[in-house]
Amino acid sequence: MFERADLYHGDTLIRRGRPPKEAPKKPVSIRLDPDLLEYFRASGPGWQTRVNDLLRQAAGLPKAG
C-alpha cells in the first residue's frame, strides 16, 4: 500500500494535488467585535472568504480571481 503512495517517473517524484497558487493567502490575526464575528459565522461555511471580499470592496480593490 505504501509503495503506491508516491508516484515516480524514473527518479523524479510526481507531485499530486493542486499546484501552488501564484499569490497564496496569508494567515493573519485580527480583532473583531463579537457581534460582527457572530454575524459572519452565522452565514455558514465560507464566511472568511466573504469577509475578504467585503474588505477588498471597501478598499476599492478588484475582486480576486
TrEMBL record:
InterPro entries: BrnA_antitoxin
Pfam families associated with the record: BrnA_antitoxin
Domain of life: Bacteria
Protein name in the entry: BrnA antitoxin of type II toxin-antitoxin system
The organism of origin for this protein: Magnetospirillum moscoviense
